[in-house]
Amino acid sequence: MRKTTTMMMNRLLTTATTLSALLLLQITTIPSSSLVHSFTWTNTNAVSIQTRRYSKNNNDDDDDTNNPRRRQLLQSTLSFGTLLTTTVNPSAAIASSSRSRTEGYAVQRTEREWAYILSGPQYNILRMGGTERPNSSILESEDRDGTFVCAGCNTPLFSSAEKFHSGTGWPSFAMGIDANVQVEKVNPVQASIAGAELRCATCGGHLGDVFQDGFLFVGTPAAKSGKRYCIDGAALVFKPSGGGEDVFGDVPPPRTSGGGGGGG
Fold first, then answer.
1. Strands 206-211 and 39-43: what pairing?
2. Residue 45 burial (CB < 10 Å; 0-12/13-18/19+)?
């Protein structure tokens, strides 16, 4: 009986992945110039989902990027995949919050020690697995050459060569540095729809999530890697090439004359 149930679950996951891919293909013909930097962000105890909204950013009446059907397809795909992820394999949906951030990592400290050496935002992200608000980190607009390291243990995590502006409001990268970034092992549905958690491979600190939608960002490094590493800025410290002061990601961006934060 258990074997039959397992086979049925695997078939359902395969079907879900295929259907999700087919639905996503219907919205991938959007030119990069038409991607609007506006996102709906939903955070639940089970999974974190970023839902893209598309709309026209020019006056071309022939451009169908504002087609409600496209937005509905993407939202339906996300909802469908998330439902199957949490129903078929609920343990995967809560893996990021249940797995230890201490055991098995080279750098280990007590939670009291972490709370002492990290700022409030850094501790919330790295040790508690929290998520910062979009456009709340100064690193989102950081474009200089350099390296982004872990705010908890100074491990090099991302190169500026892989950074791009995704429009989400979070620092985004096409890939991490070697094996320094640990990717959560999840089922194919969650990986393609809801993403997978990212951790520092040295200290276990939560960094953000990786999504399989890099192909949407034409003309960026993500288009080549096929992935988008969506990172909480507070988890990082930027070290400019050639020296200069470090830039801590838990610092908010400077206010503009209009009173708003920076954009991606």
1. unpaired
2. exposed
Query: Crossing angle of helices 2-25/68-88, nearest 10°?
Result: 160
- CA angle in degrees (0–180, nearest 5) for 215-47-24: 30
Q: What is the DSSP string of the chain?
A: -HHHHHHHHHHHHHHHHHHHHHHHHTT----GGG--S-EEEEE-SS-EEEEE----SS--TT--TT-HHHHHHHHHHHHHHHHHHHHH-HHHHTHHHHS-SSTT-SS---HHHHHHHS-HHHHHHHTT---PPTT--GGGG--SSEEEEETTT--EEEEGGGEE--SSSS-EES--STTSEEE----HHHHHHT-EEEEETTT--EEEEEES-GGGSTTSHHHHH--EEEE-GGGEEEEETTS---EETTSPPPPPTTS-----
Q: Enter the tokens of residue 113.
A: 């020690």
200 noted as active-site residue: no
158 beta partners: 148
**pLDDT tens-place string over residues 15-67:** 444 444 444 444 333 333 333 333 333 333 333 333 333 233 334 344 343 44
What phi and psi, each to the nearest 5 degrees, are found at residue 206? -70, 135
Segment 58-92, tens digit of pLDDT: 343 443 434 444 334 444 444 444 444 433 333 33
Whether 255 and 261 have beta carbons less than 8 Å apart is answered as: yes
Catalytic residue among 150, 153, 203, 230: 230
Does residue 79 contact residue 240 with C-beta atoms inside 8 Å?
Answer: no
Identify the residue whose tokens are 């995590």.
Answer: 157
